[in-house]
Structure formats: structure tokens, C-alpha cells
Amino acid sequence: MTMKILNKSMMVAVAIALPAIASAQEPSDSITAQELQEIVIEAPKIIRKADMDVLYPSKSAVENSKNGMQLLNNLMIPTLTVNDVMGSISASGQAVQVRINGREATVEQIRSLLPESIKRVEWIDNPGLRYNGAAYVLNVITSNPSAGGSLMVSAQPALTARFGNYFADVKLNTGKSQWSVGATYKMTDDIKAHRDYNETFTYPDGQSLTRAEQPLGGSVDDNRASAWLTYSYINPDTTVFYASLQGSRNISAKEKYEGMLRLSNDGSDIYLDNGNGSQGTTPSFSAYFEQHFPQKQTLVVDFGASLYNGHSFSNYQELMPETANVLTDVSTYITDRNQAYAVEADYIKQWNMKRLTVGASYNANRNRSTYRKLDNSVFHQKQDKAYFFAEYYQRVNNFTFTAGAGAQYTSFRFRESNQGNSSWNFRPQASVTYSINSNHRLRLGFSSWQTAPSLAETNIAPQQIDGFQWQIGNPNLKTSNSYMLSFRYSFSLPRVDGTFGVRAFSSPDAITPRLYWEDDRLITTFENSRGFQNIVFNLSPQVEIIPEWLAAAGSIEYRAERMKGSGYSLYNHNWSGNAQLMLSHYGFVLSAQYTKSARTLYGERISWHEDLSIIDLSYNWNKWQFGVGMLMPFGKYDQGSKQLNHYNSNVKHMRVDLRIPYISVSYNLQWGRQKRGAKKLIDVDANADRSSTGGR
To answer: pLDDT digit string (tens) for 588-607?
Structure first.
């Protein structure tokens, strides 16, 4: 009897001690679940850290996903908009830098991840100096799956249009090495579209001319393919090596519109044929090396290179319908052969509650553009950027402090004209976080970054847009500075997680277009403006309505903006947001999404990305997933802009017939024992520049 009591007492003691032991052995951002008979102890799925939110996928989220993109969507991060059908990841209308184990990745590489291999997801909405000015960073951390290899294939064809996504990836492991080979194809071919476009020109003498375009039709193409081969070697706690060879092909990306043009000073209708597009191939190579030393010291080196061979074009033609007499015929054709190289080295020293990071990087772009319509004129541009930074991180009780500073040197020059510019810019950054408790956190941050002018903004080669509009770059532009002050409150309540935030942004010398008349030509060039400021309020909740069954997430945002340039001062304010509802049970997942894009002011133009809706139903059975869905089941697809310039005011709406039903089939096969993919702590940017043709 005494032994039975003693045994029961020991079992109770073990049950009490197990969570504490697991907590002591695991890192502070880990989630553990210990099971003793019928007792299951689970940590929260969202951990609020000083510099990020850490999300741990639930069992149902993993089971209902067949690739990494689906899992990100099932996590329902409130601010994040994940669109597996369109192949995009964004937040508050801005691009999100996605990473896998610290190294920058593409949507295709995110899609190739096995859901079972994703240990956690790090959501960083206030990136540090290491991320070089990124607005948001999503870092997916993978762990060692139980398989030694995997095969993933998926197809998502549309039923009424030439639209779809196709994907395949194979991973194989040998000792401490892993090989991965894969390919993807995205088809958007001859999708029906039209453009609503009206514009008014005002001449220097005060006279005006209005051109109203009545759409007759059009089409949109976006066909892309890519393939990759990667190799990684991992010796835990000592050495990591990663190499990747990738090729991507822009098969066809173009827009074509037809319409009848009516001028305010002439009652005759004019037939309009307008289009633009691009095509090209980009091979790229990257290599990463990480070495750990005693006393928590790490040295990391990253190298990347890419080459772009391709062309961009635009065509604009006006003619009389009855006689076919050509009134205006303008075409631009630019061939690019551009190279990019980048290297970065960082030293990281860690203590118990402190971290110091010191780094340096160098980026080089060598661009060669040939203008076919300008007697094959060739322009060479050389761009160089060097960046040095140091960042210090420390925790003191409930406070966390981060402070850092960087210096960036930027230089660009055209060989033919010997025109260009160079500058040094200072980049400070700091933040302080106060954790009220495990469920509530406040953070105040300040960040800064620089934006170098692009190839299109500085190239002096004139581009004709239509009968009297031209675009000419400005080689005397200077690198612009940006500053942001942000406040964020994060909360976790029963069944509700979310954030409330305020961001104040200023760019006193933002690079923006500038329009002026030169004789009878309206010229678009670029300038360092007199300043752009905005303030944005954001509320992003996630609500678990019925645990493991029904959840909702979304974000609502209000922005107020002011822009000043040569001869103008403009203001803008509007509401935007996104909403997602997901019902899952018995292997079925029903989800609905709606996105209302923000109307953002920049220069003298208010522009917006896609207003989009999706509804999708999928069923998971063993290694298979079957689904049906509809793009734009409600609402109207809209992407466009509104220009407020005194000389040229216009409103443009791009309407695409995207009310498209589709089906999807996915298959995942795993076997053996699989190694973890290489983890990168830094990632350089070696993206080759591309020319872009001007357009209406």
C-alpha cells in the first residue's frame, strides 16, 4: 500500500515538474507540449518578443495545408495578406520581404516548404538595420522533419480562362547534405481586360484639352517560369554552407488596350491601340557561409550575383477609323544586358541578455541598355553602394533596448555623358520595448533608410509616350532619405490576438516625377521633391470564434498624407483594409478573403493596387488535397491611379475579367530521414536592374 502511494506521489511530482524542466531546456521562443496520460500542456501559439511576433502553427493548420503558402494563409496573421492563387504576400499594401531560416526567398520557395517542417514563423513589422530598409519581414523557420526526402507537386488550373499555377519540388538528403530541385510555372494568358481612362492637358497659356477614352477591350498576359537547384551542408553548431543556382524566365508580361478617343476640341472619334510589356531571362547564383566560434561568436558571409537579358517595349497608335489614316505612331524598344553583384560580411557576438552585430556590404550594378528606336544608341550605367553598420541589443527586466547606426555610400554614373552623382548618408535606428506581461506589450521605434534613384529615373535617353508626351531621366538626382517613428501596442486576450499601431513617416527629399512643357512637348522627368509625410493608424485583430473550427482575421487602416514638390502641395486621406474568414472541420477548409487596397499619394499621383476577393473550399485526404474556388466572386477588380498635376490630370482604372472558377490538386510524399535546410542570418541583394518603358 505504501509503495502504491509513493508511486502515485512520484507521478504527480513528475507531472508538475515536466513543464518547468521543458521550459528550462528550451529557448525562450520555443513552444512545447508535454502529454501525461490525458493531460496536455500547450504554450500560446503567439509569443510577443521585443523585436518580433513569433507564431507557432497549430496541428489543424498543418494538417489542412499542403505547402508553405497555404500554411501562412491558415495562420491568419492579421496584417498579412497571403494570396496563394495570385502568388503574392503583402501587408498594408506594401511588399513583404520573405525569408526562410534568415535568407531572403521567393514566393515559389515558400510554396516548396513542407508544412510539417515549419517550426515557427517570425513576423517583424519594424525591421532593424540588417534588413536594409525593408518595411516588413516574414521569416519562416524550418526544423528537422521525419522524412529523408520529399516530393511535392501541385496544379491549380482555371476552368474558364488560361490561368493557373503549377509547381513541383524534390528534396534529397545524404549525410549532412541536402539537395533540392524544383520548378514552377505561372500562367496568365490573354485574360480579358479594359481600361477606363480620361485625361486633361493644360497648356502654359491656360488653354486645355480633354481626351476621353471609351474602352473597346484589351488583354493581360503574365506568363512566368522558374527552376532551381540548391545544396546545403550543415554541421550543427559549427558550420553552415548553402549554394543556390536559379533561372527565371519572364515568358510574356504585357498589357494591351483598345479604345475610341474623343478630343474636346474635335468631335471626331479616333481609334486608339496602346500596349506595353517585357520579356527576359534572369540566371542567378548565391552562396552563404556561416562559422561559429567559441564564446558565442559568429561570422557570416553572403554572396549573390544575377544577370538579366531581356527587353521592354511600348506601342501607341492613333488612327482614323474610316480611312485608317495614322495620326500618331510611337514605339519604344529597350534591350537590357544588366549585371548585379553583392557581398556582405557580419560579425555577431552574443551574451546572455545582449547582442552586438557589426557588418559591411557592397553592391555593384553594371547596366547596358540599347534603344532600338534611337538608332541603337547604347547607354552604360554604373552603380555602386557600400554600407557599414553596427547594432546593439540588450534586455533589462521588462525593457528591451535596441540602438544602431549605419553609413551608406551611393554612387551612379553614365559612361556616355559622364553624368551622375554620389553621396554619403547616415542611418540611425533605435527602439524600446516594454512588456507589461506575457499578453501585453508596448514598443516605440525610430528607423531610417536611403533610396537610390533607379535606372529609369536617371537614364537621359528620351522616351516618347504618345503624340506629345515624353519621359527623360535626371542624372543629377540625389539619394533620398526616409525616417519613420512608430508606436505599437500588442495584446493577447482569450480568443483574441491583435495589434494597434501608429506610424509617422517623412522623406524630405523623396524622388518623384516632375512635369513641364518644352515647346509643344510635355516632358516627364524626376526631381528630389520638397518632402513627403504621412501618418497611418492600424488595428489588426485575429478572433477565434469557435476553437479549431471558425476564425476571423483582418486589418483596418486609416492614412493621412501630404506631398510637396515643384509648384504643388497635395493632401490625401482614406480607409483601407482586408478581411479573412476561415471554417475548418473534418478535413474541409472553407475560406473567404477580401482586400480593399489603400489609395496612396506619392508625387502628384494617387495610386492603388488590387481590390480583390477570393473564396476557396479544399478537402485533405492522406497525402492529397483537392479544392475548388472562385476569384472575384463579389466586387469588381480595380487597379489604377489618379494624377493631379496642373499640366496633366487623369484618372485610370484597370479592369480585368477575373471572375474565374478554378480547381486545385496537391500531392505530398515523404520518406526516410530529412535534414534541416540551411539557416542564413544575413542575405545580400543582387538583383539586376531593368529598364521600363514609359506609358499612359
So the answer is: 999 999 999 999 999 999 99
